[in-house]
Amino acid sequence: MNKTTEQVRQSLKSRYRAEKRFRAFGIAAVTFGLLAVVVLFTDIISKGASAFVESYIQLDIHWDAAVLGIDDPNDAEQINNANYDALIKASLRDRFPEVTTRLERRSLYQLVSSGAGFLLRDQLQANPSLLGSTQAQWLLADDDVDMFIKAGADKRNNVRLAEVARSWVAGLEQDGDIDIKWNASLFSSGDSREPEQAGVWAAVVGSFFTMLVALVLAFPIGVAAAIYLEEFAPRNRYTDFIEVNINNLAAVPSIIFGLLGLAIFINLFGMPRSVPLVGGLVLTLMTLPTIIISARAAIKSVPPSIREAALGMGASRMQVVMHHVLPLAMPGMLTGAIIGMAQALGETAPLLMIGMVAFIVDIPGGPLDSATVLPVQIYLWADSPEASFVALTSAAIMVLMGFLITMNTLAVLLRKRLERRW
Q: pTM, whole model, 2 decimals?
């Protein structure tokens, strides 16, 4: 008896040790995952935070009509086509009169962004009375100057900026003519060759139209397919074949759907490349299996007693589904749809195959306008040789992550708000 008791105790001790080891492995795995996420987010935020602000240089602009080439201040065409860059160059020469050689002046003119003239144009269009006056204006700095200003004193040696330009920037800083302001163009502009002028808004709008097309098509089709397969379809080898293929399609690499969209929508039907409509159709094909599977799971979760009670009261099969099963399964369906849309929002490969890798400057006005999406914009900026695009890439990733977190949070809130317990 004592021997048997001792064996039981040893067995229990061994089992408890195994449970502790398993628990320790689980905690270690969770901790490692959290640390990886923290490191990832820290790296992205540290690199992208500087993209949300940009540097400006204050210059005294003399609105000289002769320099601008304006004869009639009431002529809108003359104001639109005036030489505003000449005003900026004249102001820089007045600010730094010691710069006389051609090479140095070329470097001097590069202190200010090449797009600063558009700001002056907009101001003169809004107020033609500026002609002939002299006013202090904050102009957007060039990307190299911007990186030099944002870098700390110990990191400025690593920034690509000519030595003579560093002395000019130091003089402007000493006089208080340099300021760092909120980068409004990041959320109002499209892509640009110049990093200081580039923004994510065109990609955000393109993503919105693409997701809108995908949601409008994928959700009703996916829910209808799930209802038919779960409630009405006969159980035979044909429906078994369909179910197997739906499960297999959910595991197909996304680039295959891009090839399918390229072959069917563009090559066969002749639809235009790089438009949200085609992108939405491709993402619809990709997300349909996920939505169908999640919708079927939500329908299965409805207790059979609900159906039996409705049938016992004389309801038809269609009334049972539409009035009882569908409303009760809708929270799970919405959750699956939002998760599927969040997955589609982060896809790049299928959209690259249909040409949504184009350089898009204008903000798209609808699903048929040329556009790109946030993941593709991130891909383009990450492949750019300009060092300033590193910060823009991380900033775009932060915007994309914000969308994904928002969509997943919305899915959780919808489920908690709409779900019913039996």
A: 0.85
